[in-house]
Amino acid sequence: MRQSQPARAAVRTVLGDIPAAELGVCDAHDHLFFRSPQLPGQELDDPEAATQELCAFRELGGQAVVQWSPFGTARRTDALPQVSRDAGVHIVAATGLHQAAHCAPGVLERVTHRLAELFVAELTEGVRRDEDPDGPAEPVRAGLIKVAGAFHGLDAHARQVMTAAAEAHHATGAPIAVHHELGTAPLDVLDLLCGRLAVPPTSVVLGHLNRSPDLRVQREAAESGAFLAFDGPSRANHATDWRLFDSLVTLAASGHADQVLIGADTTTAAARAASGGGPGMPFLLRVLRPRIVRELGEEVANAFFVANPARAFAVEWR
C-alpha cells in the first residue's frame, strides 16, 4: 500500500479544512444537490432529503461524502454547511464545469472566457452562486475540480475546461475529478491532463470507469498512478454491479488496490434510498462493502473506503 499524505495535507470540506486522517469512511463520488437539463423533474434540491440520505449513510458507518456537482448544476453550497452539521458527515464541494449539455442555460456564456480564474477563486476564496459568478462568495470553499470528457474522446469543450482545471490545479494543488461519458476515454484524459498539461497522476480521479468494463484499459489507467473511481451501484444498464468485481479483483491482483475509490453517484431524486426507493448512498456500506470484504479482505475494503480517499482528496494547499 502507498504511504499516507504528509501530516500537513488537508481535505477542504464545506466546514473548513480537516486533516486527511479525519475524513473517515468516504463515499468518494456522489451528489446531494444536482440539476441538469438532461434530467428534467429529477432535480436534487431538497436539503431535508439530502440530510435524510446522509443520516442513513452515517448510521451504517459513513463519515464523509465528496459531492462532484460543479458550477452551473445547482450544487446548493448555501445549504451544504447546515446539511453537514445536521447529519454529522463531512462534505467536500466541487468547482469545475460539466459537459455543456448538463449546464444551466446561459452558464457557458458567462464563464468560459475565465474558467481558471473562477476555479481558483472557488477553491481559495469561496464558491459563487451558479447564477451569479460575479456575486459575493459563499462562506464555503471547494475541495476539488470537476471536469468531464466526451464519448470515446475529448471535444473542444472538454479540452478547454480541462486546460483551465490544470491551471487551477497548478495554482492551488487541488485534485481534478473526471466524468467519463459511459466510462470511455480515460487514456485520452491522462494524455491531456498528465501529459501535455503536467498534472501529477496522483492528483487525478478518473470516474465512472465501471461503465465501460474494459479491464485492460482500467489496468493501463491505473499504471499511470491516477485514482480510479467506481461509482453508480445498481445501474445494471451501465454494467456496474455485475462486472464491478471483475475490475476490483483484477486491479487488486495487479497491485493497484491503493488507487480504487468507491462512490454511489446519486444523481436523481428517485435514486435516493431515504426518500426515493434507492439504492442511494447506504448501498455502499450495506451491500458493497461486505461483498468487498468477502472477496478481497478487510484491509482492501478499508483502503477503498478510508485510506484511498484520504490521499486522493488531501492537498498541501497553496
Can you characterise this structure?
α1 (47-59) runs parallel beside α9 (282-296), α4 packs parallel to α5 (156-172) and α7 (215-223) packs across α8. The protein contains 10 helices and 11 strands. The chain has one domain (10-312): Metal-dependent hydrolases (TIM Barrel, Alpha-Beta Barrel). The strands form 3 sheets. A 6-stranded parallel beta sheet has the order 6-7-8-9-10-11. A 3-stranded parallel beta sheet has the order 3-4-5. The chain has a two-stranded antiparallel sheet with strand order 1-2. The protein is an alpha/beta fold.
List the helices and strands and how they pair.
Elements (H helix, E strand, L loop, with lengths): L9 E4 L2 E4 L6 E5 L16 H13 L4 E4 L12 H8 L2 E3 L1 E3 L10 H5 L3 H10 L19 E5 L7 H17 L3 E4 L6 H11 L7 E3 L8 H9 L3 E5 L9 H13 L6 E4 L18 H15 L1 H15 L6
Parallel strand pairs: 3-4, 4-5, 6-7, 7-8, 8-9, 9-10, 10-11
Antiparallel strand pairs: 1-2
Helix pairs in contact: 1-2, 1-9, 4-5, 7-8, 9-10
Keywords: Hydrolase, Metal-binding
Protein name: Phosphotriesterase
Pfam families: PTE
Short description:
The protein has helices at residues 47-59, 80-87, 107-111, 115-124, 156-172, 186-196, 215-223, 241-253, 282-296, 298-312, and strands at residues 10-13, 16-19, 26-30, 64-67, 90-92, 94-96, 144-148, 176-179, 204-206, 227-231, 260-263. The chain is α/β, with parallel strands linked by helices and 318 residues long. The chain has one domain (10-312): TIM Barrel, CATH 3.20.20.140.
